[in-house]
Amino acid sequence: MSLLTVEKVTSGYGDMEVLHEVSIAVDSQEIVTIIGPNGAGKSTLMKTIFGLLKPKSGRISFSDHEISALSADRIVRLGMAYVPQVENVFPSLTVRENLEMGAFIRSDDFSGRIREMYDLFPILGRRGRQQVGKMSGGERQMVAMARALMLNPQLILLDEPSAALAPNLAEVIFERIEAINDTGVAILIVEQNARQSLSLSDRGYVLASGRNRFTDTGENLLANEEIGQLYLGG
Amino acid sequence: MTTLAHIPQLLVYGIISGSIISLGGIGVSLTYSILGFSNFAHGDFMALGAYIALGLFTLFTGLGITNAPFGPLSFGFGFVLAFILAIALTAIAVILIDRLLFRRLRRSGPVILMMSSIGVALGLRNILQFFWSPQPHYYSQAIQPAVSLGVLNIRIKPDELFIIALAVVLVIVVHAFMRYTKMGKAMRAMADNATLAQVTGINTDRVIIWTWVIGAGLAATAGILAGIENKFITPELGWQMLLSIFAGVVLGGIGNPYGAILGGMVIGISEEVSTAFISTGYKPAVAFVIMIIMLLVKPTGLLGRKD
Amino acid sequence: MEHLVGILNYIVFFAITAGTYSILSLGLNIQWGNTGLFNIGIAGFYALGAYTSALLCGLPPSAWEGRTFGGFQLPFIVGLLGAAIVSGVVAMLVGAPTLRLRTDYLAIATIGIAETIRLILTNESWLTNGVWGFQQIPSPLYKTIHAATSAYLKGHPNLPVWLHDLISKSYDWFYLVLVLVVLFILYLIMERLVRSPWGRVIRAIREDEDATSMLGKNTFSFKMQALVLGAMIMGIGGSMYAHYARFISPVSFKPLYGTFIVWVMLILGGSGNNKGAILGGFTVWGIWAGTDFLTKYLPFTSTQSASLRVILIAVLLEVILLWRQQGLLPPKKHLFSQK
């Protein structure tokens, strides 16, 4: 039984269907990447998994719970976290306050977890009292990831974590993603420019026009010539 | 020359009325930033608070609860008790209105909420009018002498000093709440990004309830203070201040509670000082003109951030 | 029979008022129903139209009046056009600083302008006669029709009482026709407009302003046109009111009557549908008038009854918002409804 199972999910906005019977699965402690061209429905899939969009049909289950009908705030409590692609931090709050918000539902002392996050992202530790709105794109991405990790989730969804980042910064982010995975957290990444992401993934899915196209291990997808040409920019 | 000599005194009046406008403005600002709509019923929440206090105070007087004045102030224990309970009851009433109407309309978007708030405004005002008539009611008929401050011929009543002091204390308390408590931080987080707040696991419904508690509590306070300052209350009390409150909120930067405080103070002072030069009847128009000028010069307001 | 005539005369009076409100509702429909502009200062534009028309067509100030200006005794049609122009110009002044911003700003600014207009009407006695208001505003063709009616009644002294009563109200019948003609002409113009390419653009703005501006449309200018046009229609409504009521004062234009009830009319009738705007005008005015009869039988004072009626209208608004936002006649489906 996988940690996350998405079975034949159809979803979209209003009357418009973006996903057509998409199925994916993520096992515990795995890194899985979903790649696909712009408009393939990757972000829609993320939002549907996380309860921000209601699936029109299909089933989503997470660690033995059916979550298709749950709202985002309930899903968080089950041990899943989500980092949206944009607007993923609270800009008027400080770094530390952003992390505190990540732990909103915890009533215990979570200062230890904050220290762990500062160890994982040392730059945040040095800027705990800075307003996040005044930080760079890469730093904001770190704040967003640390915020999502505050509840010790089993699975974290990352929507294009390296988008709009300079290549060297993207490298840092992916290296941190691996570090997070090493602590036992499963990771589901959506990426457009996905070579880097696939190379550290256990498995990958190719999504196009809202449908499943290919599924294979990360390595095999990278090695596949057709996919390379069609989806990885040659 | 006589007009100019009056200005220090008008400044003091401006600070008093600015204190009341600011307290009203904080609530408007919080509702705008956290719930995402302009609440046109806020003035009527103020009137509701003022009338609940009146009702309780009348009841307490009937029960023989003492209202022996505290020192130089015009009121005592009975009134203060009514004051505090009115704040709580207003907050409860507003939360009920939210559950009954606003919560169900949240999915329909800000404009529908704004429209609903206009219905609430007229409904509330006429409920007050139904029970208490449109005629003025008095907390106290006693005349309180103003005392001289000994500088620039400024005179002020002890009650007015109380109004300013209470406003300052409440602003500090709200500031501390927003800055240091978990719920206050969650309110700021939700004002930043409501969807992200939900995704993060913040209990947004509880944040909304707290927003109404603070907004409605301060509204009731402002309404009662307006009653103390004017010496009487009418069901239109809040509506008559609403334009000044909105002008203050826009002036300071809509959605920023600190802006609402600053803006409310500027509007209050401008309105009072303007009476040295133009007819008193134009006070609300002064607020309106200042607001329009701000919108032309810098729509984000004095302390506003980009939208 | 006399009783029936009494009812008939009341219905005429009712229809004149309902027709005038329907004009306002049509004006709001172009602003809100089609373009999505949140104008809650209808009372202001309505008052502006009424006062402009009174200033242009009314009598010169008399010795005991506070005003010292105006009263040019111009023809009714000049008053009507003047009312439209003045309301339109003021709408432009309100729109300029606010139409580029979120719709809340327009809402706040329109409430502000309505209040400011009311203050000016109350305080500038030289222009408006202050709280005493304008009196004896001439009604169009009143002398002609009145003279003809009197002559006819004099020539036929033996008419039954009911017929006499009916004929003596001939001016009201005339005014009803006038209101309905103005309403119908405005309706035809609005229908043509919303079906034109211009109408498609303003509806697209309502659906999704950002997308529309990305299509290369200057949304600010289109919104301004819709705001001004709607305000002009409201000004015409004010003029129609002034020439029938013949007396106007600042109290006639409190926010409730001029603004809130028009909103309920449009929302109940169906925002975005011109027929709905008119249907809503007559329906809500019917409810409003009907409750006047009802509350007379309740053991309350007249001010309490008045409050009760407003509470009822407020409840009606909330009920529509909760359960039937599209109103009685929903707008027709059109191309841009997909987001």
Name its key features.
heterotrimer; A: 234 residues; alpha/beta; Rossmann fold; 2 domains; 6-stranded mixed β-sheet; 4-stranded antiparallel β-sheet; 10 helices; 36% helix; B: 307 residues; mainly alpha; two-stranded antiparallel ribbon; 11 helices; 73% helix; 1% strand; globular
Characterise the protein shown here.
- The complex is a heterotrimer of chains A (234), B (307) and C (339).
- Chain A contains ten helices and ten strands.
- By secondary structure, chain A is of the alpha/beta class.
- Chain A has two domains: 1-79 and 154-165 and 181-234, 3-Layer(aba) Sandwich (Rossmann fold), CATH 3.40.50.300; 87-152, no CATH class.
- In chain A, strand 1 (4-13) and strand 2 form a beta hairpin.
- The model of chain A has no long low-confidence stretch (mean pLDDT 91).
- By secondary structure, chain B is mainly α.
- Chain B has a domain at 30-237.
- Chain B has eleven helices and two strands.
- Chain B has a two-stranded antiparallel sheet with strand order 1-2.
- In chain B, helix 2 packs across helix 8 (204-230) and helix 3 packs across helix 8 (204-230).
- Chain B is globular.
- In chain B, 55% of the residues are buried.
- The mean pLDDT of chain B is 93.
- Chain C has one domain (2-252).
- Helices cover 73% and strands 0% of the residues of chain C.
- Chain C has helices spanning 2-34, 42-57, 76-98, 103-123, 125-128, 142-155, 161-168, 170-195, 197-207, 209-214, 219-245, 255-269, 274-296, 302-323.
- In chain C, helix 1 (2-34) packs parallel to helix 7, helix 1 packs parallel to helix 8 and helix 3 packs antiparallel against helix 11.
- Chain C is globular, with a radius of gyration of 21 Å.
- The N and C termini of chain C lie far apart (58 Å).
- The chains are: A alpha/beta (234), B mainly alpha (307), C mainly alpha (339).
- Chain B binds chain C through residues 32, 37-38, 40, 101, 104-105, 108, 110-112, 114-116, 118-120, 122-123, 126-127, 129-130, 133-134, 242-243, 246-247, 250, 254, 279, 281-282, 284-285, 287-289, 291-292, 295-296, 299, 307, and chain C through 36, 38, 40, 96-98, 100-105, 107-109, 111-113, 115-116, 119-120, 122-123, 256, 260, 263, 267, 300-301, 303-304, 307-308, 310-311, 313-315, 317-318, 321-322, 325.
